[in-house]
Design goal:
By secondary structure, this protein is mainly beta. Helices cover 7% and strands 36% of the residues. The strands form seven sheets. The chain has a four-stranded antiparallel sheet with strand order 1-26-25-24, with no helix packed on it. It has a four-stranded antiparallel sheet with strand order 2-3-4-5, with no helix packed on it. The chain is globular, with a radius of gyration of 34 Å. The chain starts with a helix and ends with a strand.
Amino acid sequence: MKRMQIRPLIALALIFLLSGCAPESGSTPEEPPAEPPPPPPAEEPLRPQEPEIYPPFPEAEQVRERYAVIDALPGLSFVRPLDIQQAGDDSGRLFVVEQGGLIHAVRPGQEPDKAVFLDIRDRIDDSGNEMGLLGLAFHPAFSQNGRFYVNYTDGEGTVVARFRASGDQADPDSEERILTFAQPFSNHNGGQLAFGPDGFLYIATGDGGGSGDPLGHSQNRETLHGNILRIDVNRRGNGRAYAIPPDNPFAGNQEGFREEIYAWGLRNPWRFSFDPPTGRLFAADVGQNAVEEINLIEKGGNYGWNIMEGTLCYRPPQGCDSTGLELPVHEYLHPVGRSVTGGYVYRGTALDHLQGAYVYGDFITGLVWGLWVDEEGNTANHLLVDTDLRISSFGLDENAELYLSAFDGRIYRLVRR
């Protein structure tokens, strides 16, 4: 009997509990807890600041004689090395040109090695001090097409030729002569080759030699001597192995001027180079008896030789007419130096204080300077290092770090002391 009375009591208790859990009339259920706020966005890593294209000029004490040259390729030597190039193919190689007709591919490192890249000694005439294999330039698309260009002298004069490379070596039988012209003397053959930012090939030619430009080449626009030339090697035109860029100063002229001319009035612009961020073209022109000069080359410019040697009158020695002539951006007198060797504007990362400096040297005295030229043409020039080297050329690796070649057979690198 008692068991039967418990069941209704349990049922009533359950009803009471359920009714106590129900929400009151007019109330709403509790809302779920809010989502935690998202974390703040991560800060972007600081990017290294890009170097200024025209940095402020350094204080003299920051750079003057604060540099040294060290052997960049320990254990390796060359015979009269006079050009250093890189192919822009991310291989890390340097290419060292020997005047006698060899080009070596070099891999820098703790144990550098070299291998013959091209051997054209069989067609080179290097019987004169300024003759031989003088310049090298790789096509901007070398990694795809394998093309490169050289400037050399043979028994007749100057040859600008194209070769092809496959793998680690070039084929000497792939030569195609692009441009040839006679040389009346053994000296003042120019030699530099470089592709500009416009993709055209630029070529340095000397005045043909002899003292004082006896044939009057540099002021004669009907000759290829004494100029910076510019040609298009990707096209052909008028029966030539190249085309004339349509905006060359004398393209299509009717006066008989050579259409290849980009600038003229130069004596022997042994080395020139482009500064990629600015597009400026620096050329070092070797002087006669008094002045070595650095020029900023402009299209259609006349740089004055042999009316002037630098800013001095040459012919006549006094009272010359400089109207329409482009004067050098910098010059130095003999005997401070006697044969300028052009270099490059420094854009690497290892030598901060040299940012934006055109680094060049002198073949005879071994001095190396840095020249800063701002956007308005103001300049500052400082001696960086005094070496005892016969400096024949400068070069850049793929990281834009600076090298130089000397006639002691070594390749050097410029470093901070």
